[in-house]
Design brief:
Largest sheet: none
Order of helices and strands: HHHHHHHH
Number of strands: 0
Shape: elongated
Number of helices: 8
Radius of gyration: 27 Å
Strand content: under 5%
Oligomer: single chain
């Protein structure tokens, strides 16, 4: 009983210190997350994203706010750091190592989010560019062609984000290679079967110019 009492009294200060660090750390993390969110919202990034049509593309999922996403990531990054300190106080090395891996992984999440936002913004820009150009040239299916270009960029950004997150890297690379090969083969077959006469005319005209 004396030995048990000695162990409890020796470990109890560590528990109290860990609880205090956890409570204070969570309060600070939540406060800093809100501060980051307000600072980014003050720069009007959310309005810029909305004007670029990102929210229109994903209106079924609600409004996307960059300030909210980055504030949430900062808050949880700090919470993970606090949990690492708590595990260190309580002398729990396995939990400490796991949380350290999580903390090192969070920057990849930020980069993946930025890649997806760039993909959405670039996709909407390409959509407007192709739609207006094709319509001005009085060609057929301007909206269809614009949507193909837009969603190609979005899918490319999605694959790049998955690679950044190390989620099925080899599978994503295989799918991307297969997608490019499929488009190349489909285009070659369509051009070879449906456009061979036009191709012959182009080659004859090119030969005459030479």
């Amino acid at each position: 009983m004396q030995d048990l009492f000695f162990k409890v009294t020796t470990f109890l200060p560590n528990v109290i210190a860990a609880i205090l660090v956890l409570i204070i750390g969570i309060i600070i993390a939540a406060s800093l997350g809100k501060v980051v969110q307000k600072i980014i919202a003050f720069t009007r990034v959310d309005k810029l994203v909305d004007k670029l049509g990102v929210n229109k593309t994903f209106k079924a999922f609600g409004q996307i706010k960059v300030s909210g996403i980055l504030g949430w990531l900062v808050k949880w990054f700090l919470i993970v750091v606090v949990l690492i300190a708590v595990a260190d106080i309580l002398k729990l090395p396995q939990i400490n190592d796991f949380l350290a891996e999580v903390a090192r992984f969070l920057p990849n999440v930020v980069i993946a989010v930025v890649i997806m936002l760039i993909g959405f913004v670039g996709g909407n820009f390409v959509y407007e560019l192709i739609f207006r150009s094709v319509r001005a040239a009085k060609m057929h299916s301007p909206r269809f062609l614009a949507n193909i270009a837009k969603w190609s960029m979005v899918i490319f950004a999605l694959m790049a984000s998955l690679i950044q997150l190390n989620i099925a890297r080899s599978l994503v690379q295989t799918l991307f290679t297969g997608l490019i090969a499929m488009l190349a083969i489909a285009g070659g077959i369509a051009f070879g079967l449906g456009g061979k006469d036009k191709a012959r005319d182009w080659l004859d005209e090119f030969e005459k110019k030479l």
